[in-house]
Amino acid sequence: xxxxxxxxxxxxxxxxxxxxxxxxxxxxxxxxxxxxxxxxxxxxxxxxxxxxxxxxxxxxxxxxxxxxxxxxxxxxxxxxxxxxxxxxxxxxxxxxxxxxxxxxxxxxxxxxxxxxxxxxxxxxxxxxxxxxxxxxxxxxxxxxxxxxxxxxxxxxxxxxxxxxxxxxxxxxxxxxxxxxxxxxxxxxxxxxxxxxxxxxxxxxxxxxxxxxxxxxxxxxxxxxxxxxxxxxxxxxxxxxxxxxxxxxxxxxxxxxxxxxxxxxxxxxxxxxxxxxxxxxxxxxxxxxxxxxxxxxxxxxxxxxxxxxxxxxxxxxxxxxxxxxxxxxxxxxxxxxxxx
Length: 339
Known about the structure:
This protein is an alpha+beta fold. The chain has two domains: 32-148, CATH 3.30.1330.10; 163-338, Alpha-Beta Complex (Phosphoribosyl-aminoimidazole Synthetase, Chain A, domain 2). 32% of the residues lie in helices and 27% in strands. The chain has helices spanning 15-25, 68-81, 103-120, 172-181, 183-186, 192-200, 202-206, 210-216, 232-244, 259-267, 290-299, and strands spanning 34-36, 45-49, 52-61, 86-97, 123-132, 139-148, 163-167, 222-227, 246-251, 281-285, 304-312, 317-321, 324-327. The strands form two sheets. It has a seven-stranded mixed β-sheet. A six-stranded mixed β-sheet has the order 1-2-3-6-4-5, covered by helices on one side. Helix 2 (68-81) runs parallel beside helix 3 (103-120) and helix 8 (210-216) packs across helix 11 (290-299). The longest helix is centred in the first third of the chain and has 18 residues, at 103-120.
């Protein structure tokens, strides 16, 4: 017990506490050129600048250690892209553990960042690196800036009657993390091929959602868009519902899982729908534009499906599995922490 209350669990701050934090910093978010500021469920800030708009995001990688540079670029780019912006420029801060960091490990992270930036056509602009006391793993923090040519797509625009589109399938990032961080333990429980395919899911289908976001960012009919990070499908849907003041119903039969995801998550009793899912986007789209938007994403080489709909309500979400409907609860700790 801490002097001022309960010790917080690993993961995102509880919504109640996060709301208090936003209230505390609210007076500092006062520039009239700030179009989208701090709020629950918003993936990035949007500012008006030099006659145009920019989306700006900062996000850390705190759990994965293998391929941390690749994770860093992708998760920051995803947040900017999900606002309808085109991610263009990146900076990074690398905090590296003492007594463990070698020159080779630093160069490896730098190489991963460079490879991911080239893959996504992002310019790396600079940052900061240091060996830091008290760490047991590397911590990487990114800042991504994107150009925005039209009004941002926020998490607050979902409307009753909108269909819910999801790109790819849940828990891509979680599957890759399990395979990479628990490879030795898994080798006695699942075939080698499952582990290797799970590791490669970092790149294929991949944890970047930039391709599908770029394919639809100038299309009409997208009322809200959100990338699925901590808490996966559950938290992503709820965050849109809370921001948009609507309810949602997810149809379980419409959600497919990759075979590797099913096998690896089952070993650690992980619910894939509550596991970190970078690489997937959730969109609230007008029913009369849904097919066109889905086909545009598929034409970009990305899987996409309608998994539910938004309804009248006040920020709740449900899953319908056959004839059973159950409420979705917000996860304060991602399912990946079970490993």
